[in-house]
Amino acid sequence: MQTLFNLLWLALACSPVHTTLSKSDAKKAASKTLLEKSQFSDKPVQDRGLVVTDLKAESVVLEHRSYCSAKARDRHFAGDVLGYVTPWNSHGYDVTKVFGSKFTQISPVWLQLKRRGREMFEVTGLHDVDQGWMRAVRKHAKGLHIVPRLLFEDWTYDDFRNVLDSEDEIEELSKTVVQVAKNQHFDGFVVEVWNQLLSQKRVGLIHMLTHLAEALHQARLLALLVIPPAITPGTDQLGMFTHKEFEQLAPVLDGFSLMTYDYSTAHQPGPNAPLSWVRACVQVLDPKSKWRSKILLGLNFYGMDYATSKDAREPVVGAR
């Protein structure tokens, strides 16, 4: 865990830098940026002095596409690394083909689980599944697991109540999910359900997730869970998923995707993921470090612009 936090200092403790360029400087920077984007480097970022704690914005703009192709598949972190491929950034599909070996799991945001009636479930979004892309990724990253995100979508409180109170419903749900994984050649799923039910029926939800994980494991598939931050952003209050729930699910799940980002809001602008809060969320979940290897810490690769309008915020991503 100490290694993990050392890495976090590099990833998160970077102060924003604001500079002003003259018109001539701007033209020079723009031309250099375009030149850098089209060239690979023969050295990795570690050897080029780019892994620093006092990162400059200009360095990111100039170097972000100039990676070392010879080292693109080398791993530097021994723990599990989960990456998401999202609909709002289709470039992620290409990035995964190049850097897939740096991850242990990739989760395309493709699928939704819906309840259609008594003991009837359907996984939708299968039209988005790209088998050709999956084959290409696995060809270059032999140990990579493809675990699509599976969102419990359009579930009412009655849907949850009927399923969580019925062993037959849970059994049928698990069978449906396992069969989809087998048919589509997935390696498991990243399940997103905790936020949908809020704080209600936690005991039943833990039971269902345990049963689902056991069914997936029996089929040699992975089961990961998306969880909200253990400390509510901007407060000292515990979140919806705490040490109590973590202790019950850690022995049966393969990993937890912890949402340690989006700390600030449009009404209270501020940092996206303050390190003290990120560290506290991990310590609350697992104070004795028993299961920390299963905590996949959410690292945001974007910032937030609070100046777009009075009561809104807008992600600052590559296109900007």
From TrEMBL:
InterPro entries: Chitinase_II/V-like_cat (IPR011583), GH (IPR017853), Glyco_hydro18_cat (IPR001223). SMART domains: Glyco_18. Residues 1-19 form the signal peptide. SUPFAM superfamilies: (Trans)glycosidases. One of its GO terms (molecular function) is chitin binding. The keyword DNA repair does not apply. One of its GO terms (biological process) is carbohydrate metabolic process. Keywords: Signal. Residues 79-320 form the GH18 domain. Interacts with STAB1. Saccharide- and LPS-binding protein with possible roles in pathogen sensing and endotoxin neutralization. Ligand-binding specificity relates to the length of the oligosaccharides, with preference for chitotetraose (in vitro). Belongs to the glycosyl hydrolase 18 family. This is Chitinase domain-containing protein 1. The gene is CHID1.
